[in-house]
């Protein structure tokens, strides 16, 4: 058999191929999440936008008080603290209520013993009556005594339940996650039922309260979009929707309107002043919504044009076909298909976006 000799260059080349085959391909670099400039679709084509002053408020707020009177023993939280649902905020001195529970338990034990005694007596009288040893009057008397004992037993049980409930009510607990907006008491103060102890505002969910002239209230509707701007809170421009329209006009000829915010920056706090832009419906119903021209990507054979709509749940943009109308004002165009009030769309750099691309809103 002929001997095969590998030359040094051949061995070196073979080693290179072997190492190349064993090494793994470098991992793909993670895709950079692009920041998009958002536009909140709200203004109908042909609509009328008005601005009013408003005040930020918590969607859920609760004035916390004790359900029983007593002496404040502990106050566990201060104004400005965050609390969790079920957290003990303050307590009353439990000693008087514990004595009430002990007394109610003693009364229950006595009532139970009396009930058992009267039941045995009734059973005996019934047996004697059935055998003819006692008159019907004696049986009726035993029945009446037993019924009275049973009533006393039920009353004792009720009193014990009330005493135990009152003892439990010496602990004031938070009904929901939130922020202590106000604290009204200190330890050792005497409080009555309903005395305000704390004011709690719910975490996260905010709304804005606005007074709107009654002359235009008929042009607003529940569910209509609003834009809320707060100069002291970065990033608000916040979108919202009208949730409540008052039914009475005040002495100032205004009606109360409430709008829930769809997003709440951390800097946004109840009590802040806000400017609220509301869209008043026109006499002739608008067919579509005004969208910046910069948000429209060129169309093709399948569609007249496209927008990139932000999907907040998935953190991506969706390429959506749109159809335009005729109205154009200040670099805006009417879009009659493909957008709705409250949509968030990319308003710049749309030529660099693709369907399903991961994005974030500018400033987040």
Average of per-residue pLDDT values: 84
**How many distinct beta strands?**
23
**What does the overall shape look like?**
elongated
Supply the CATH architecture of the largest domain: Beta Barrel
Order of helices and strands: HEEEEEEEHHEEEEEEEEEEEEEEEE
- How many structural domains are formed by the residues? 4
Q: What portion of residues belong to β-strands?
A: 25-35%
| Rg measurement, Å | 37 Å
Helix content: 10-25%
- The largest beta-sheet arranges its strands as 3-12-15-14-13-16
- Structural class, from helix and strand content? alpha+beta
Characterization of this structure:
Mean pLDDT is 84; it is low at 10-14. The longest helix is centred in the N-terminal third of the chain and has 36 residues, at 95-130. The chain has four domains: 31-43 and 286-364, conserved putative lor/sdh protein from methanococcus maripaludis s2 fold (Beta Barrel), CATH 2.40.420; 48-59 and 205-281, Efflux pump adaptor protein, beta barrel domain (Elongation Factor Tu (Ef-tu), domain 3); 61-92 and 170-201, OB fold (Dihydrolipoamide Acetyltransferase, E2P); 95-168, Helix Hairpins (Orthogonal Bundle), CATH 1.10.287. The chain has helices at 8-22, 95-130, 136-168; strands spanning 34-36, 38-40, 48-58, 61-64, 70-75, 82-83, 88-92, 171-173, 178-183, 190-191, 198-202, 206-213, 225-229, 237-245, 254-261, 273-280, 289-292, 297-298, 305-311, 316-329, 332-337, 344-346, 359-361. It has 364 residues and is an alpha+beta fold.
């Amino acid at each position: 058999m002929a001997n095969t000799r590998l030359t040094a260059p051949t061995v070196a080349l073979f080693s290179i191929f072997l190492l190349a085959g064993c090494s793994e391909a470098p991992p793909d670099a993670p895709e950079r999440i692009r920041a998009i400039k958002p536009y909140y679709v709200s203004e109908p084509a042909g609509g009328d936008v008005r601005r009013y002053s408003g005040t930020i408020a918590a969607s859920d707020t609760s004035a916390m008080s004790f359900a029983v009177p007593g002496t404040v023993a502990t106050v566990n939280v201060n104004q400005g603290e965050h609390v969790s649902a079920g957290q003990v905020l303050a307590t009353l001195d439990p000693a008087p209520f514990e004595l009430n529970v002990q007394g109610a338990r003693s009364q229950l034990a006595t009532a139970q013993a009396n009930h058992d005694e009267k039941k045995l007596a009734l059973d005996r009288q019934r047996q004697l009556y059935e055998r003819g040893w006692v008159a019907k009057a004696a049986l009726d008397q035993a029945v009446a005594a037993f019924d009275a004992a049973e009533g006393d037993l039920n009353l004792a049980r009720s009193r014990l339940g009330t005493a135990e409930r009152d003892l439990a009510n010496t602990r004031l607990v938070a009904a929901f996650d939130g922020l202590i907006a106000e604290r009204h008491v200190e330890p050792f103060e005497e409080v009555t039922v309903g005395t305000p102890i704390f004011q709690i505002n719910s975490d996260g969910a905010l709304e804005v309260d606005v007074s709107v002239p009654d002359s235009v209230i008929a042009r607003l509707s529940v569910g209509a979009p609003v834009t809320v701007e707060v100069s002291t809170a970065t990033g608000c421009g916040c979108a919202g929707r009208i949730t409540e329209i008052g039914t009475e006009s005040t002495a100032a000829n205004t009606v109360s309107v409430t709008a829930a915010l769809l997003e709440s920056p951390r800097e946004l706090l109840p009590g802040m002043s806000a400017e609220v832009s509301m869209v008043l419906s026109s006499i002739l119903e608008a067919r579509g919504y005004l969208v910046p021209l910069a948000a429209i990507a060129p169309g093709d054979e399948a569609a007249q044009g496209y927008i990139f709509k932000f999907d907040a749940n998935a953190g991506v943009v969706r390429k959506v076909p749109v159809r335009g109308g005729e109205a154009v004002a200040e670099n805006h165009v009417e879009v009659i298909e493909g957008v709705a009030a409250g949509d968030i769309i990319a308003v710049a750099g749309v030529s660099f976006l693709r369907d399903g691309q991961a994005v974030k809103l500018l400033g987040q």
